[in-house]
């Protein structure tokens, strides 16, 4: 009622580069859909990350043409018919897009996302999933454990930060008390902001465990994020 509906669709597209391409599409329909565009995520083992992003961009372009009418079925038919063209165009404009991406990245700057998770029942699988998402979306930062506190701090392009958040909220990343796969419902977005000049850029994504609050605080201080720590972490201990 408050978050809308999320569903996955898998389609196989024939005769593309002499092979079948399996597209995994995730649609999140907000409560005011179809007056508002859906969030779309695209994955495929046969396509590169950049190609998946191009497919997503083209789908969103098409979606705008259908407002305010229901559009998901039309979008699926469209990509089945036009995927070959989208991929070919993607290769043609690769250099231009890279240059544009660099300019856009410079204009938008690097963004930071700070999350608090309530728990992880299937910790090993959950951690591996977060690491894969961070790698796929070229995000750096930390997954931090300190006692019962679980924090995720990410840095990267704003569009990739937003896509990570969609994945985090809509994918079955954990298990419930009966051992069934479930979505992450106990997540808090503590902060989403542009990285400032005083903030240190993380070069990698790492999973780290801290035995004391002082150790955790030093991690934030080293990254120039003392204010972020002071504002959000101590209240989690209460």
TrEMBL record:
<dbReference type="InterPro" id="IPR006575">
    <property type="entry name" value="RWD_dom"/>
</dbReference>
<keyword id="KW-0539">Nucleus</keyword>
<protein>
    <recommendedName>
        <fullName>RWD domain-containing protein 3</fullName>
    </recommendedName>
</protein>
<dbReference type="InterPro" id="IPR038840">
    <property type="entry name" value="RWDD3"/>
</dbReference>
<dbReference type="GO" id="GO:0005737">
    <property type="term" value="C:cytoplasm"/>
</dbReference>
<dbReference type="InterPro" id="IPR016135">
    <property type="entry name" value="UBQ-conjugating_enzyme/RWD"/>
</dbReference>
<dbReference type="Pfam" id="PF05773">
    <property type="entry name" value="RWD"/>
</dbReference>
<dbReference type="GO" id="GO:1902073">
    <property type="term" value="P:positive regulation of hypoxia-inducible factor-1alpha signaling pathway"/>
</dbReference>
<feature type="domain" description="RWD">
    <location>
        <begin position="1"/>
        <end position="86"/>
    </location>
</feature>
<dbReference type="GO" id="GO:0005634">
    <property type="term" value="C:nucleus"/>
</dbReference>
<dbReference type="GO" id="GO:0033235">
    <property type="term" value="P:positive regulation of protein sumoylation"/>
</dbReference>
<keyword id="KW-0963">Cytoplasm</keyword>
